[in-house]
Amino acid sequence: MGERGRGCCPPMDLMRSEPMQLLQLIIPVESAHLAVSYIGDHGLIQFKDLNAEKSPFQRTYAIQIKRCGEMARKLRFFRDQMSKAGLTPTARSATQAITSLDDLEVKLGDLEAELVEINANGEKLQRSYNELAEYKLVLQKAGDFFNSALSSAEAQHREYASNQGGESLETPLLSEQETFADPSKQVKLGFITGLVPRDKSMAFERILFRATRGNVFLKQATVDEPVIDPVSGEKVRKEKAIYHTLNMLSIDVTKKCLVAEGWSPVFATKEIQDALHRATHDSNSQVDSIFQVLRTREMPPTYFRTNKFTSAFQEIVDAYGVAKYQEANPGVFTIVTFPFLFAVMFGDWGHGICLLLATLYFIIREKKLSSQKLGDIMEMTFGGRYVIMLMALFSIYTGLIYNEFSPVPFELFAPSAYVCRDPACRDATTVGLIKARETYPFGVDPAWHGTRSELPFLNSLKMKMSILLGVAQMNLGIILSYFNARFFKNSLNTWFQFIPQMIFLNSLFGYLSVLIIIKWCTGSKADLYHVMIYMFLSPTDELGENELFPGQKTVQIVLLLLALVSVPWMLLPKPFLLKMQHDRHHGESYAPLPDAEESLQSEANHDSHGHEEFEFSEIFVHQLIHTIEFVLGAVSNTASYLRLWALSLAHSELSSVFYEKVLLLAWGYNNIIILIVGIIIFICATVGVLLVMETLSAFLHALRLHWVEFQNKFYEGDGYKFYPFSFALLDNEDE
């Protein structure tokens, strides 16, 4: 549905799916066909099957569906015949004049019978033509054989006549009269000509040799001309979809009205009502359709309005699981966080420009490419063109921060702050550099590249940066769980899930992030590994030279106690409070039905135990598993973000290897041929490994970080998509 309906509804909450409503439509039979057709033009309702207990053959419109299927078969037959003849279908001018389905059925039947007869006559004519063409080729080749044999015989005859005066070794031992006098010595020769496929000529020759016991003279010639054997070898689809939908509607006892139920976005109410009124008017029905909203506890489908830019990011989230109705949508944050985390691993502004140029090709030609049938890989790449564009832009940004251009550094923003220790710079890569100017204004100073301390410096920088990014994204996930609990009015999740999780995560890894920032700001040489390990093993010991701020030991003891308290806080209270809630409502047979929107929101989050047996042990074990999973996951997820550092290092080192061991090595030979070969190898390695394999690797790792480390903090993903009845979706489906 895309952006449809945006003008007729209030500003939407980007984090929540569209509010849905369950509709009941009572439509007169005479206007039902047009009503469903008009609704399908807009794609507004996901109809429910009210005849699920009936087989397809027991439904009201089974005969109409069969007729539409037969007409669809005829149209496919026409399309195949047109493609075989090299014709392209034109506009729907032929079918626009036919307004009645019966007239169209008759017209298609006549055209099919006529085309079948034309095909039969065409096949007979083609077969006769091919047979005559074969005869012509046989006569031509056989004539060539006999003409050459006649010329050879005449030459031999002239030679024999010239030598008749004396005996020759080639003179026949028997005269012609003697040969014909004895019938037993007569030799009868025959011949046969024909065409044999070239790939079967050797097999044919062996068969002749065996059949005649070698008494055969075979002569063959190649036929250059190809010889062809006779070949043995919009829509009516809308109507079929309409009748399929009508079969999902139930008919009332008077058989004068059809009853439909289905989900629809709230903003589409007016459009649906207008479609029903228009169908009543166009069908000349005397009774208008009835439109009413039903109250239900059933979970509605999830529908997010997207466009060509945001749809690919939403698909990334939906591949993990469709959001539950009104659940916070990670797709909003994925638009920024996904390409950024990819760029942290891929950071190289030269490679980023290459990705951007490739993506711009798809974006500039998207209208033409969208109408073509692409291969699987190209189709997937084209669908994610805007994702790749943002990945490329963020890669350029992080590449500028890393100061890497495959992998040459540049002084883009200012001269380097460092100079060599001696004027000749002989020891620049061994002894090191001295600072002579102000700090480089943006990103890594280019002088770091190529020095002895480059790898330790970049390792420390990227590893600590990975931890900061990971803790920030995990905190975002926990904060979103709070907004979910607040939106669904679930106070238990607020007090016994959000708060203890925030305390546990930030008491340990949030504190580590603060220490990293303090160390960067102060230039301290404190060992953070030592600080975090002995925070657990010996929390009361003095920190000594590892102390980063006054009172650090006291702060660590408090944080450690908070982390220990948060574990039973997550585990124990919630199962007992759920048991108390169940006991308080136990024995109530009926309860007033709440308002529709309130009911949907409460049902979306609360487990509806109803009057089923409350299994306290099952709830407690589930909470125990959830607590253990979060505690262990907090450690493993933080470590998982170190992949940002690892893949960034791998990309940088591979770039250096290809540049130094291929391109510079080939340049050093001072040979144009070696240089050209080196450039070709460098380009192939850069494209194949760094721009294809590394891109795919970083994409998959960013995907995992979003699905596991980020979304499992708040995202349930157990909803189902909103699939409205829409004619626009028929073009993407197989008939």
TrEMBL record:
Residues 94-128 form a coiled coil. The chain crosses the membrane at residues 340-364, 385-402, 465-483, 495-518, 554-572, 672-693. It is a multi-pass membrane protein. One of its GO terms (molecular function) is proton-transporting ATPase activity, rotational mechanism. Keywords: Coiled coil, Hydrogen ion transport, Ion transport, Membrane, Transmembrane, Transmembrane helix, Transport. One of its GO terms (cellular component) is vacuolar proton-transporting V-type ATPase, V0 domain. One of its GO terms (biological process) is vacuolar acidification. InterPro entries: V-ATPase_116kDa_su, V-type_ATPase_116kDa_su_euka. It is found in: Membrane. Its main location: membrane. Belongs to the V-ATPase 116 kDa subunit family. Essential component of the vacuolar proton pump (V-ATPase), a multimeric enzyme that catalyzes the translocation of protons across the membranes. Required for assembly and activity of the V-ATPase. PANTHER family: V-TYPE PROTON ATPASE SUBUNIT A3, VACUOLAR PROTON ATPASES. This is V-type proton ATPase subunit a. The lineage of its organism: Eukaryota, Viridiplantae, Streptophyta, Embryophyta, Tracheophyta.
